[in-house]
């Protein structure tokens, strides 16, 4: 019997697939990426597969590319696999048809995920599986981590023996990322069951010039249909091969499976049919109801394709008269969902349909919507009705079409007795999730207990709300849903007490432990920071309330915000899951193992957090009175309530109805009626959320400020801003602001008027990255200092509120020259987003909107920038005082360049119609002198950015004043709002990361550059797939360690700039904000002003690089000083110009700062030395190549 091991579904499946595969052809996509990362890492470590080889791993440029390579590899006799989900799986569909038609034994492991329709979602359901059901591939669906591993064995054996492609699917996140203690089969137990004869037949039939054959022909009407029917017997045998593979799995593991599995009363009258993790939830309810004497049951669908009507009919008891089929997908415009249609057809084909009184369908769990036993009770209750509700939903409130079933509020808990349940409420990037994963492993490895961990995230890249649901118990855990009655609850952020007060306590079991991270120590202090409603719930549940100041412990250790080591130490001390002394020792060892790659300093800092937590008094118990809820609200709580009241008093209805409930953790309760039908949304909602996620925030002191504005330039979140105050505003501002005012010295500002200046950060929107502090040249004099947020929140927020509510924008009508010269004073139209603190991408976007935000239409590739750019309902893109601002849209990952090109075509075609009408009126002399003068002026400035707007305003007034029958037709067209909106030239911005630009979207990007059209492309180059977890792209540099490059990348970075320069009419720039913000801003201006294709490559440090994000600007500067990153401009009219001095420092000085390079040094020092020398040579040669090009360009 193999030892039980705590792993998630991705790891379990990857373990099996590695053994059975010769090659893995991969491309990253959430939530399947970890499977590919595991196999790449194991290959780098030298692990052998079932054939005694190291698995060959190749990353492709897209999922379509991976599918093509998969097809090619199989054609040459290699057992190949891939890992994918959602849109990526759709890109594989054409090849999947080919794989099935050619009988090739591919295995595609799929972490099933929602497809993008009205919105993208990275979470789990069966939408993608339903979209491939027609490809001819076999489809297996698993219920949990153990079965995903077992079905991976069955999938590979079936593919080989049946000579047919198989999709091994399991629920994204709910299975792929859930950690469970399972039995991982050792390779020695798999080896005897390798079907060597079938493998040899497959290899012998492959393409080979020694015995050539043809495949992939073109057939026509005379023969195509017959040739297809010739395969019928082959397809008919796939099911029996699958069942034989299940027999092998049983021999190896002792676990028995079938195509369809029934649980319940043998004489059940009401039966649910379902597949995936939801089956286990239904099983719990069924077993409970059967024990009470009810005749109910559930059928699990394990083999979805080929679908066997006979086997399904055998699984459903003949006594069943009421059947409900639950689909985890929605088929828009279909009469029913796919699984239901299969069940109905099967019952009809087997003669069972006539005996069924009702067969209905329901939908559940879309985009990982929680599906629990209360939902199951509601389904059975509905099924018993005289006329059951059909095509219903569970888990939501549908007050529009009224198709939802309410949860039964009296549903009992079905968690196995003796199970300890723990919830950890944390914040993205605080380390709590990683620490909890370690905790599961510690407990699973050191006790006989079963373990389960599921992690619920919001969409913020960092600073978002996270909830870790951990269960430990003596019995197997089948609870595939959130914890509702926790024995231990920990809250890592003091800001959560007000924001999520009820949410934090409503899942606590009576008499359970509640640990709060707070500086409050006494009853009086704790009362002051916890709202009445939360205190009442604590009191009603008689909770054991504990407090500790983990934030202060982390800050003292030099790890601001990283409270995980302290909080986890507290968990081991308080929970009793393990003896505390033993647990702490193991936790310390785990810290060393976890952080050793980051260096001894980081290890010691985390150990110091543990030591501080163990000190007497570090954790305090709070004894509260029975009337605690009647105590008066504390000042902080009152302040929060007042601030929230102010927001509600002025906020748009959408913000009140949707944005704030979602931001306060109540999105699940929102009814259908609150949502727009097409997924559209207003802009500018992030300013209402005030997350308060920073540990420390910047405080400005005016007396030593030299007004360089570098803090404004560097701020990634547009948090710190300069306010220009005129004489009419000075006296209305709060006293603390008036005391800080100084005369504005900027010459551009002074040319426009006499203003006072105040620099102020929004403390509740700040992420605490401290980049502003790091770049401040006079910080040693106190110009900027970082203070703990809760010490200064109210005073700083009052200053910010005073300034933002009273001071008006002074720069909206500035000329383009003035905008560029003093861009920091322009209002940013991109603010307060959810990117990582210190993000290297977002300051670029901020400054683009400062220059041209009121004219932008943005096509944003899927990736980090699309997630922080628009994660519903948070829009950081906002409007100026005129109501103008960026219009933003995301299509997909791979098609962004074409998407943006289509936008341009649409805008140009519509504007051209207006232009043609206006020109026609000029030619005919229609509209009068004033109209004609305005029209000629507008036509002359038609293609200019600022001038088309100013002349367009004049023309619009003249259009409205047109009179007379001779211009009636023209006025009818020109006077439409949709026409007037186009007088000012919109600017098309195609934006995305290097994964899009260098890899999956490169063909489209090349098409746009070759088009000669007036469009700007902006590449946020982090040199890695940041959004999916740090996989290498073609932008990843030589020697860098990344996912899919575990032993260091062995090829140079793709030279996108040089490729773009091959188009002589394309403007090309490479910029680095921290090196030269003047060059960056100038390049942005020139790119938008160039009436042809333009592309800007922007160096963007990322947290995946393994360097502190308060060093973003320093990294950008050093990258240029070492030649690691080139800064230049290639204007089609003036040629290539290098910016700044020649590289003056060796590249190793840059590499030594970042863990992605240092890791290779520590693990493979000789290889690292060789690759780093090679990288230096590449950098030297590249610089010479560019300077030679610049010199020749100058001569020309």
TrEMBL record:
<dbReference type="Pfam" id="PF12838">
    <property type="entry name" value="Fer4_7"/>
</dbReference>
<dbReference type="GO" id="GO:0022900">
    <property type="term" value="P:electron transport chain"/>
</dbReference>
<dbReference type="InterPro" id="IPR033412">
    <property type="entry name" value="PFOR_II"/>
</dbReference>
<dbReference type="InterPro" id="IPR011895">
    <property type="entry name" value="Pyrv_flavodox_OxRed"/>
</dbReference>
<keyword id="KW-0560">Oxidoreductase</keyword>
<dbReference type="InterPro" id="IPR002869">
    <property type="entry name" value="Pyrv_flavodox_OxRed_cen"/>
</dbReference>
<dbReference type="InterPro" id="IPR017896">
    <property type="entry name" value="4Fe4S_Fe-S-bd"/>
</dbReference>
<dbReference type="InterPro" id="IPR019752">
    <property type="entry name" value="Pyrv/ketoisovalerate_OxRed_cat"/>
</dbReference>
<dbReference type="Pfam" id="PF17147">
    <property type="entry name" value="PFOR_II"/>
</dbReference>
<dbReference type="InterPro" id="IPR017900">
    <property type="entry name" value="4Fe4S_Fe_S_CS"/>
</dbReference>
<dbReference type="InterPro" id="IPR019456">
    <property type="entry name" value="Pyrv-flavodox_OxRtase_EKR"/>
</dbReference>
<protein>
    <submittedName>
        <fullName>Pyruvate-flavodoxin oxidoreductase</fullName>
    </submittedName>
</protein>
<keyword id="KW-0004">4Fe-4S</keyword>
<dbReference type="GO" id="GO:0005506">
    <property type="term" value="F:iron ion binding"/>
</dbReference>
<dbReference type="InterPro" id="IPR037112">
    <property type="entry name" value="Pyrv-flavodox_OxR_EKR_sf"/>
</dbReference>
<dbReference type="GO" id="GO:0016903">
    <property type="term" value="F:oxidoreductase activity, acting on the aldehyde or oxo group of donors"/>
</dbReference>
<dbReference type="InterPro" id="IPR002880">
    <property type="entry name" value="Pyrv_Fd/Flavodoxin_OxRdtase_N"/>
</dbReference>
<keyword id="KW-0249">Electron transport</keyword>
<dbReference type="GO" id="GO:0030976">
    <property type="term" value="F:thiamine pyrophosphate binding"/>
</dbReference>
<feature type="domain" description="4Fe-4S ferredoxin-type">
    <location>
        <begin position="696"/>
        <end position="725"/>
    </location>
</feature>
<keyword id="KW-0670">Pyruvate</keyword>
<keyword id="KW-0813">Transport</keyword>
<dbReference type="Pfam" id="PF01558">
    <property type="entry name" value="POR"/>
</dbReference>
<dbReference type="InterPro" id="IPR050722">
    <property type="entry name" value="Pyruvate:ferred/Flavod_OxRd"/>
</dbReference>
<keyword id="KW-0408">Iron</keyword>
<dbReference type="GO" id="GO:0051539">
    <property type="term" value="F:4 iron, 4 sulfur cluster binding"/>
</dbReference>
<keyword id="KW-0411">Iron-sulfur</keyword>
<dbReference type="InterPro" id="IPR009014">
    <property type="entry name" value="Transketo_C/PFOR_II"/>
</dbReference>
<dbReference type="GO" id="GO:0006979">
    <property type="term" value="P:response to oxidative stress"/>
</dbReference>
<dbReference type="InterPro" id="IPR011766">
    <property type="entry name" value="TPP_enzyme_TPP-bd"/>
</dbReference>
<dbReference type="Pfam" id="PF02775">
    <property type="entry name" value="TPP_enzyme_C"/>
</dbReference>
<dbReference type="Pfam" id="PF01855">
    <property type="entry name" value="POR_N"/>
</dbReference>
<dbReference type="InterPro" id="IPR029061">
    <property type="entry name" value="THDP-binding"/>
</dbReference>
<feature type="domain" description="4Fe-4S ferredoxin-type">
    <location>
        <begin position="755"/>
        <end position="787"/>
    </location>
</feature>
<keyword id="KW-0479">Metal-binding</keyword>
<dbReference type="Pfam" id="PF10371">
    <property type="entry name" value="EKR"/>
</dbReference>
